[in-house]
Amino acid sequence: MRLAVIASGDPSDIRTWSGTPYFMTKALRAHFPDLTVIRSPFPSWWAPARRVARKASAGRLDLAWLKTFAKHHSEKIARTLDKNKNDIAVCIACSPISAYLAERFPIIHVSDVTAPLMRDYYKEFSSLPQTLANNAVEFDARSARSAQACLYPTRWAADSAIRDYEIDLDRVSVIPWGCNVEKDRIPDRPGCPPFDQCNLVFIGVDWIRKGGSIVIDTFETLLSYGAPVSLEIIGASPHDPERLNTLRKAGARIVERGFINKADSRGFALFNSILQSASFLYVPTRQDCYGLVFAEASAYGVPSISTRTGGVPGVVENGVNGYLLEPNSTIEQHAKTIWEIWSDQTRYKKLRASSRERFESVLNWDAWLRHAAPIIERAAA
Fold it and tell me: How far is CA 15 from the centre of its chain?
């Protein structure tokens, strides 16, 4: 069987969409060695032109949702697939292409969200004019309805596809995504950091959406308890640096790492060191379709503290690899949850062990492939 993989960027580039297409493609290649990767779904000018258009229009013009471009790019890819004699294509979160491609070629629709869910969830999507927002819904619906099968990583997204697109239950599957770290680079037996200090780690590029201010408020509350707590911030720049400086002057340990490139050997060594010494991954996100960082934390046996929102419950299971608080939980509730778990060493060690177990049994790409491969094979047949 000749399988093709298409994404909104190059699936063979680990920098595309946080590495998800890269790791998904790598898993698929292990089972489908005669695999074709469509490395350039768009011309070289496309990405910079899209960025310029979005910036100049304050997010109101996104070229991805224009039908003219969508039809043109899908026709170009269809000719490539015909030339390669591919049997079926796995389309990863590229509904503007797959919507039209599915009319003439069998596809597997893969995404972590549906357009109706995005409409009132992400402000970037909500800022689109009605015409483009309608196009986005139409693309996603056409892709999902025409696909041989739809693979979603969470029940949240799958239920929306069934409800909003009226897709048959037997064509929709929920398969959690894996951890975007190479297997051979993950410690075989992650240990437990000493209990002399509770090391909180925040990872996220969008400080506001990922709940950065809640992290600082909770950190300060824990300090008021007299708790030996530290904080490492990866990715985003805090929006209130003066407050952090004040806390540092009072003796608080806060380290800002900035962006860490895990694809770089030095960057990964630093990331690896931080995760191995972390007590909790603390990302009280406001909006998230999945949350790959929680899968990465589980690989290191690090429990996650987050929010019951979007697709996060599909990654973090309460009492197994972390705990989810309600979106309206108070800072006191956040601080109390962290401190109660950390203070009970027996409970905490069990949580670390079950976090790692959830990675080994569910949150890895081999597990994803075991469920996805038979679906793809049946669809191609």
Answer: 13
What percent of the chain has pLDDT above 90? 88
Query: What residue has token string 């595309």?
Result: 16
Residues, the chain = 381
CA distance 323 to 316: 7
Q: Are 144 and 94 in contact (CB under 8 A)?
A: no
Whole-angstrom Cα distance, residue 348 to residue 329? 22
Superfamily of domain covering 3-178+364-380: Glycogen Phosphorylase B; (3.40.50.2000)
On the CB side of 39, CA atoms within 13 Å amount to 3
Supply angle C-alpha 96, 98, 100, rounded to 5.
Answer: 80
Beta bridge partners of 255: 232
* 288 — pLDDT class (breaks 50, 70, 90): very high
Phi, psi dihedrals of residue 281, rounded to the nearest 5°: -90, 120
The alpha carbon of 263 is separated from its chain's Cα centroid by a whole number of angstroms, namely: 17
- From 279, 292, 275, 263, select the one nearest 341 (Cα to Cα): 279
Report residue 144 as tokens: 């999902």
Distance CA 351, CA 353 (A): 5
Mean pLDDT over 127-152 rounds to 95
What is the Rg, in whole angstroms, of the alpha carbon atoms belonging to the chain? 21
Amino acid at 316: V
CA 75 from centroid of its chain's CA atoms = 29
- Homologous superfamily of 183-361 in CATH? Glycogen Phosphorylase B; (3.40.50.2000)
CB 293 within 8 A of CB 18: no
Average pLDDT over all residues of the chain: 95
- Tokens encoding 234: 């990866």
Q: Which tens digit of pLDDT belongs to each residue from 66-103?
A: 999 999 999 999 999 999 999 999 999 999 999 999 99
**The pLDDT of residue 47 is above 90:** no
* Fold matches, 3-178+364-380 and 183-361: yes
User: Where are the domains positioned within the chain?
Assistant: 3-178+364-380, 183-361
Residue 320, amino acid: V
* Whether the Cβ atoms of residue 145 and residue 375 lie closer than 8 Å to each other: no
DSSP 52-88: HHHHHTTTS--GGG-HHHHHHHHHHHHHHHHHHT-SE
